[in-house]
Design brief:
mainly alpha, globular, single chain
Length: 70
């Protein structure tokens, strides 16, 4: 279902929501808007490959609503 929401968001905005040339850039672009992945909201995130390399980056707060709904 989240994928459908991203596609609809791109159709409404007429441009990509998150752009990244590589996997890590894509994760960072999503984290900036949706917040950094954490065990509080996604308990199994620690099992993803390279999770701890991403976790050392800045921790972003969720700003999805302010970014797209206003």
């Amino acid at each position: 279902m989240p994928t459908c929401r991203c596609v609809l968001g791109e159709l409404v905005r007429r441009k990509p929501l998150f752009t990244g040339a590589e996997d890590l850039q894509q994760v960072m672009a999503i984290s900036i808007v949706c917040g950094s992945p954490s065990t509080a909201v996604w308990p199994d995130v620690v099992h993803l490959p390279r999770f701890y390399t991403i976790k050392t980056r800045p921790q972003y707060q969720r700003r999805l609503r302010s970014e797209f709904c206003e």
